[in-house]
Backbone:
């Protein structure tokens, strides 16, 4: 915790509760589109390969590819809001973590730009006879690989920021990956991307199919494929979710975290139940209900992450506030001593006011005895007073022993000379 | 299979899934909390304020760590030595004064302990072994509420034998059973 920096308290542009609310709300929307983007990119490449055998997959891959370019733009644009909010609410912790992983953290910019270019090449070279099949796939696979890697950079940063006690052992992104909870959280996220892409495909092809009755067979099959992916990946969260929670550092856990998980599991169960019925029995449940249930799960998960953040940073925040207060008081003292010539200007009286008055007053007892008493005692013993202040010890059982004051020998002398010059206690 | 049967299977499978996930979640929580619950103190006493800001030595509040087997948590009387006058407008100090007034003593939640069959002396470690408090208790000077940060405690806050032994080994301290066990 030594490594926690001080903060410069600046006024926030909005109330803290609003920033936290914006952080959660915009993050929900952002992460949904990120999930659709990652899963969608996988679908468009994977099903295009299967399309060699079955034209259904070929069409599915193309339609999914068209959604990815839209989803990725929405994900990035909406992602700006939670990024700004988190950097405002958790400034000192967020930027400290960014510093540690800086090269990779900053590489997100060019990596995402490259992924977007790759995605557009993949999309617009689809029907071109000028390029080989391998060339076309390359860009799709590259975009998917980058989309898989960038969340790992984000996650390692956001996780590292929560545990300042780890900062002294972590010098770069690769080491940040081994901070507890990063890899399990990443696996949980990636699996969620496949689950949510299944839900997305289900909803997307359902609503698209409604306006296109002639193609009912295609849309029905696409929906069912979405349901299957959603079902399998959601069921698998049993493993990833539990490992993710089980590797959470204890300081980040609380009853609210547990409660949110339980509620989210129930809602996920409800969504899965409705999906399974629609797949194996008949369309009993409206897709809107399924999508609302899964939206509730994602919102609960985002709130859960916020709870974890607040829990983990509770103690570091107190330390940050205390360090800042200490720094400011020391700075104030320094500024009093500062002069352009480098000469110490602080008088014995000023040092006394800064350091001693927390426990001593001239004319009355506070924590320690009054200075009237001390001046009387040491009126003819300047050296005795200097010796006592330099190395305090228990003398009077009525008072607690004085801690050694954080001042130099010269400053002790200035204080003693100031006190003994006072016309009191004699 | 009839539709009602399929529906029954789906219901059973979903309910089982929910139950298993929730059960495993509770199990995961036990795993997280294997180091014991975090201590919950009645007052948010800040170590960092007292050590870093006020320059107090550890032994100022825990004098027995250097002269006895147990370090002891200070009594309210020691707190009052300063806080009869100092910081009395601070909400946590107000809370402490109210507790001392009403209950006579503060019920601190114990952070570290050894089992009954273990003989452990603070004095032997701090004075003879010259071991700093932080080696076992972590950077307490930077903590607000003390947390269990060292000691390899695996059993609800009790210190683990393996952790003791590894340090004894490292420092060449005796490792016979009767050194530590009653």
Residues:
């Amino acid at each position: 915790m030594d490594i926690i920096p001080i903060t410069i308290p600046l006024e926030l542009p909005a109330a803290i509760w609003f920033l936290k609310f914006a952080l959660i709300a915009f993050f929900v929307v952002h992460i949904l589109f990120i999930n659709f983007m990652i899963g969608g990119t996988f679908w468009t490449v994977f099903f295009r390969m299967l399309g060699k055998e079955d034209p259904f997959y070929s069409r599915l891959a193309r339609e999914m590819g068209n959604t990815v370019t839209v989803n990725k733009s929405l994900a990035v644009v909406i992602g700006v809001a939670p990024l700004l909010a988190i950097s405002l609410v958790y400034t000192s912790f967020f930027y400290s973590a960014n510093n540690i992983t800086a090269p990779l953290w900053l590489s997100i910019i060019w990596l995402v730009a490259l992924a977007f270019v790759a995605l557009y090449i993949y999309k617009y070279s689809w029907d071109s006879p000028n390029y080989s099949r391998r060339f076309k796939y390359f860009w799709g696979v590259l975009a998917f690989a980058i989309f898989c890697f960038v969340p790992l950079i984000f996650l390692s940063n956001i996780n590292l920021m929560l545990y300042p006690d780890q900062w002294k052992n972590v010098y770069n992104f690769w080491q940040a990956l081994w901070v507890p909870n990063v890899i399990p959280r990443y696996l949980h996220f990636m699996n969620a991307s496949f689950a949510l892409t299944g839900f997305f495909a289900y909803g997307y092809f359902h609503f698209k199919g409604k306006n296109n009755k002639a193609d009912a067979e295609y849309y029905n099959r696409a929906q069912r494929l979405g349901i299957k992916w959603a079902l399998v990946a959601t069921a698998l969260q049993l493993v990833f979710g539990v490992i993710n929670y089980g590797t959470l550092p204890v300081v980040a856990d609380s009853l609210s975290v547990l409660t949110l998980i339980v509620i989210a599991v129930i809602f996920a169960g409800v969504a899965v139940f409705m999906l399974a019925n629609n797949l194996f029995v008949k369309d009993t449940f409206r897709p809107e209900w399924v999508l609302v249930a899964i939206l509730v799960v994602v919102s609960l998960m985002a709130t859960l992450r916020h709870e974890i953040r607040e829990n983990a940073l509770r103690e570091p925040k107190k330390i940050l506030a205390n360090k800042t207060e200490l720094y400011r008081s020391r700075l104030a003292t320094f500024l009093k001593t500062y002069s352009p010539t480098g000469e110490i200007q602080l008088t014995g009286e000023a040092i006394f006011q800064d350091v001693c008055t927390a426990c001593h007053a001239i004319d009355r007892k506070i924590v320690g005895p009054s200075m009237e008493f001390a001046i009387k005692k040491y009126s003819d013993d300047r050296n005795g007073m200097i010796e006592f202040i330099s190395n305090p010890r228990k003398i009077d059982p009525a008072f607690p022993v004085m801690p050694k004051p954080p001042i130099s020998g010269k400053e002790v002398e200035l204080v003693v000379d100031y006190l003994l010059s006072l016309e009191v206690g004699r | 299979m009839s539709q009602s049967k399929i529906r029954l299977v789906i219901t059973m499978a979903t309910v089982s899934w929910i139950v298993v996930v929730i059960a495993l979640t509770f199990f995961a929580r036990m795993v997280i909390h294997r180091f014991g619950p975090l201590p919950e103190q009645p007052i948010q006493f800040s170590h960092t304020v007292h050590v870093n800001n006020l320059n107090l030595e550890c032994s100022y509040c825990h004098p027995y760590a250097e002269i006895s087997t147990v370090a002891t948590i200070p009594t309210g009387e020691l707190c009052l030595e300063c806080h009869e006058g100092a910081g009395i407008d601070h909400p946590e100090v107000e809370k402490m004064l109210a507790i001392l007034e009403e209950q006579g003593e503060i019920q601190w939640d114990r952070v570290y302990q050894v089992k009954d069959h273990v003989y452990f002396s603070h004095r032997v470690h701090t004075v003879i072994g010259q071991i700093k408090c932080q080696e076992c208790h972590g950077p307490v000077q930077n903590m607000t509420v003390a947390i269990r940060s060292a000691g390899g405690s695996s059993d609800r806050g009790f210190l683990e034998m393996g952790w003791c032994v590894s340090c004894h080994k490292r420092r060449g301290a005796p490792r016979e059973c009767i050194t530590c066990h009653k």
